[in-house]
Amino acid sequence: MKFLLLKILTISALFFAVSPIITLSAEEVEKPKVAAHGAILMDAETGRVLWGKNEHEPLAMASTTKIMTAVLALESGRMDETVTVSGKAAAAPKVKMNLSKGEKLRLGDLMLALMLESSNDAAVAIAEHLSGSVDAFCAEMTEKARQLGATNTVFETASGLDAGDHHSTPYDLALITRYALTVPGFVELTNTPSANFRSDKRSYTFNNRNRLLREYEGANGVKTGFTNKAGHCFVGAAKRDEMQLISVVLASGWGAQGKSQKWVDTKRVLNFGFDNFEFVTVIEAETIAGNLPITRSRTDSVDYAFEETIRIPLGGYEKDSIYVELTIPETYQAPLNTGDHIGTAKVFIGTDMYCEIPLTATSEATRHDLKTSLEKILNEYIGLITVSEVSITLPEFFAPDFLPAT
């Protein structure tokens, strides 16, 4: 079967009408200037990378590690279990909540210490309770990352402290955070301003160290981090109207300057996203895309449509660079049912393919040739003279290929 490749250019004129957010060209738009060695801006809904700097470079990520620690813990569904603190957990280095060996407390309370003040002893206690050992828990963290597409991430600690080959990338951390934002309880946990609880030995009070929650409109996450190897790091998230953005900055600096710079970097990255991008519906599901000639049927042709709606976060400078390639057969031989896939539509932003979706038939075309006509007549005739269901199928020589369709 031969296929046609059709290009539909300036798709904005065909499927949607939008006023540009900005009128500058891509070269004229000012990109975020950050001190971070590695950084990224990702749209949470689609996973589209809106901007990046060394986004695929492996780097130490400090306590942003705890995003995955929290994900596995929340997905375990064991928040009400009692954790008994081991000597290893109690001996974890600062930052810590100063747990003591044998102390008992609720797993859900340890999660507050983990994410609000980044307690390393809480991370170890959680890992040991859920998986039996930190090593086993880290193996599960790494496997979970791979399942999410974060294939350049290795977890060797549950806390984020430097060890061995413990590393990630800005892109991988954005992917992990994108998933984390969908895990029930995660956003609520990371947005908790303060918490008070008791173990069997003492009371604890924690305050959320995420300044972004207090300083940036729409902020809803996520996690700070610092080690001597990683420098100051932060994974941020903010939502305005319908757009949820994720930012990652790794190695924004060291010392007091780096500690302050990670907030500056994060705000610049998020501002770039909110100032320059908005969602555009490029394709509406069930929109007719074309007409397909049909053979061996009394139906001459059938319309085909896009199966899915495609919404993309776009900069105003990008909308004129969108086009769609349709790959469809020149003709299609009946039978054809409503909803059958008959081709594909590839959506491009410039030279980069964004996605591929099916094209489906909007109506049916029944087969109609000498063979099927005789079968229908005979079956209807037999149905008049017997109460039992009988089906007659003619041999193939009754409908040789050279017979024309009727």
Properties at a glance:
alpha+beta; 18 strands; 406 residues; seven-stranded mixed beta sheet
Write a structural description:
- The structure is a single chain.
- With 406 residues, the chain is an alpha+beta fold.
- It is 28% helix and 29% strand.
- It has eleven helices and 18 strands.
- The protein has helices spanning 11-15, 66-76, 87-90, 107-116, 120-131, 134-147, 170-180, 186-190, 212-215, 255-276, 370-385; strands at 3-8, 38-43, 49-53, 82-84, 104-106, 194-198, 203-207, 219-227, 231-240, 243-250, 277-283, 288-295, 301-306, 310-315, 322-329, 332-333, 341-349, 352-361.
- The strands form five sheets. A seven-stranded mixed sheet has the order 1-15-17-18-13-12-16, with no helix packed on it. The chain has a five-stranded antiparallel sheet with strand order 3-2-10-9-8, with helices on both faces.
- A hairpin with a 5-residue loop joins strand 2 (38-43) and strand 3.
- Helix 2 crosses helix 5 (120-131) and helix 4 (107-116) runs antiparallel to helix 5.
- The radius of gyration is 29 Å and the shape is elongated.
- It starts with a strand and ends in a 21-residue tail after the last helix.
- Mean pLDDT is 89; it is low at 9-24 and 386-406.
Describe the SSE topology.
Elements: E1 3-8, H1 11-15, E2 38-43, E3 49-53, H2 66-76, E4 82-84, H3 87-90, E5 104-106, H4 107-116, H5 120-131, H6 134-147, H7 170-180, H8 186-190, E6 194-198, E7 203-207, H9 212-215, E8 219-227, E9 231-240, E10 243-250, H10 255-276, E11 277-283, E12 288-295, E13 301-306, E14 310-315, E15 322-329, E16 332-333, E17 341-349, E18 352-361, H11 370-385
Parallel strand pairs: 12-16
Antiparallel strand pairs: 1-15, 2-3, 2-10, 4-5, 6-7, 8-9, 9-10, 11-14, 12-13, 13-18, 15-17, 17-18
Helix pairs in contact: 2-5, 4-5, 5-6
